[in-house]
Amino acid sequence: xxxxxxxxxxxxxxxxxxxxxxxxxxxxxxxxxxxxxxxxLTNRRVISGWAPYRPSRDLSExxxxxxxxxxxxxxxxxxxxxxxxxxxxxxxxxxxxxSLAWGDDTLDFEVVPAETGTVLTLxxxxxxxxxxxxxxxxxxxxxxxxxxxxxGIEVPAMTGEAAKLHGWDxxxxxxxxxxxRENHPR
Length: 186
Hints:
- Helix content is 26%, strand content 28%.
- The chain is built from 4 helices and 7 strands, in the order ββααβββββαα.
- The protein has helices spanning 34-42, 44-47, 132-150, 168-183, and strands spanning 14-18, 21-30, 63-66, 86-93, 97-102, 105-114, 117-126.
- A hairpin with a 2-residue loop joins strand 5 and strand 6.
- Helix 1 (34-42) packs across helix 3 and helix 3 (132-150) packs across helix 4.
C-alpha cells in the first residue's frame, strides 16, 4: 500500500455463486457515524473522492443515473453514452441501504451502526467469476478511501491507474489466493 494516511483494512471478502452470477461481499468497520457514511455513499461530490464511478447526480432518489468510470469521467460528466456507464438507483432505505445497477452489475451498500462507528457491507453481483479478485482489490482500495474521507483525511485518487500506486497489484494477488483457498480448501 502507499504511505498515505488512508486507513488500512485487512484482506477480507467472500465470493458466492448466485444463479448465473457471483456475489462478492466485503464488510468493513468504519470509524465514522452511520449518517456520515450514508452521506458519503449518496452525495455525488463526495462519491467522486472514493468510488470507481462519478455519478451525474446524488444517489438519494430511485431512478436513472449516469455512472461513468472514474478513469473516463470528466468533471462529473453526466452525458456519457457508454453502456458501461448506465446506472440506476434501484432501492433506497435512507441511512441504511442503497442498491445500484452499474452497467450489468448490481452494487448493494448496507450501513449498520456499531459501537465504534459503522459497519459497511458491500455486495457486488457480476457475471464473470474470473474478475472477482480484480473487483475485490479495487473495492478494497475504494472502501479504504471512503473510510479516510469520512474521517476527514485528504485521500489521493485510488481508482483506475492510480490504484496501482496504492498496492492494487499486491491486493489482487492476495484476493486471488483467498478465493482459491475458499474454492479448494486443504
